[in-house]
Amino acid sequence: xxxxxxxxxxxxxxxxxxxxxxxxxxxxxxxxxxxxxxxxxxxxxxxxxxxxxxxxxxxxxxxxxxxxxxxxxxxxxxxxxxxxxxxxxxxxxxxxxxxxxxxxxxxxxxxxxxxxxxxxxxxxxxxxxxxxxxxxxxxxxxxxxxxxxxxxxxxxxxxxxxxxxxxxxxxxxxxxxxxxxxxxxxxxxxxxxxxxxxxxxxxxxxxxxxxxxxxxxxxxxxxxxxxxxxxxxxxxxxxxxxxxxxxxxxxxxxxxxxxxxxxxxxxxxxxxxxxxxxxxxxxxxxxxxxxxxxxxxxxxxxxxxxxxxxxxxxxxxxxxxxxxxxxxxxxxxxxxxxxxxxxxxxxxxxxxxxxxxxxxxxxxxxxxxxxxxxxxxxxxxxxxx
Length: 385
Prior knowledge:
This protein is an alpha+beta fold. It has two domains: 8-277, L-amino peptidase D-ALA esterase/amidase (4-Layer Sandwich), CATH 3.60.70; 285-383, ArgJ beta chain, C-terminal domain (Ubiquitin-like (UB roll)), CATH 3.10.20. 34% of the residues lie in helices and 26% in strands. It contains twelve helices and twelve strands. Strands 1, 2, 3, 4, 5, 6, 7 and 8 form an eight-stranded mixed β-sheet that branches. It has a four-stranded mixed β-sheet with strand order 10-11-9-12.
């Protein structure tokens, strides 16, 4: 059984947004207000959900509502207003439900008011279709009723689109008198390109540490994982990573903080590599290790240029060790190399491929992850509507 970090409840239900009649509406509920970090796409044309969550992310967060089957993006002039209606209605519903549980006692007076600014929203699916807000709003009672500590699977299913499997990763950190947990969910298979890759990711933890340090550790973890993967080089309008802390277990020592950082990176990298392995039409998982760069930034730039080369990806699909594709990709990135630089390739007929390139320009290294490009990718995206 997947252990959900203390202070969180999850649910995932069918709302009728998908033709497949699968779960398409999810909720992350914070029993107390959570501290939140958000990392968003750098695409200039973003969904209404991204716009609103960017605005709300600095506030204490009570809930995150997620829909799949509709990108909630570029659909009509009142799209942002409709999105605000959804978060406002959810805040009102959760407030009423809290008060009903508390009753008319002194406890009820201490219940913290939930405002629309305390709600985050994320959406994924097809761009240009109006999000049926009334369907979502009318599903709030069922979404609330289904909340539970054992709903990791149903929530994970509710965020998927063209994914072929659920993506969940978890870890535990032993504290002096307790155990802190990290639990992550991701969706994504196509339109995967760094900053922040095309995906929705939700990382929950009950660990708490100073916010500046929390943000620094989270950013490092994301840079080494979600910002180091690519499937097709196409950036989405909806990319979002939320990291939420319920602040239940205080990390008191440098050792505990170091372990938390290590485990958060592990969870993020596991989810990121799942995204690549589930890349639309992908038949091979490719790990590209660059060394000998002038800087970490150059090493990543080199790796991503290779990973985003359609010629390279097609060559790997065909098990063709055409290293000229790598040289061309490096030059495209503005990286000049000498003749005869070391390039090592594992057996390209296998499912898991390793490419090692030594630029012979410096001492820095970086690893990126990608998949091959297959006829199935074309078929999936030719029919996606």
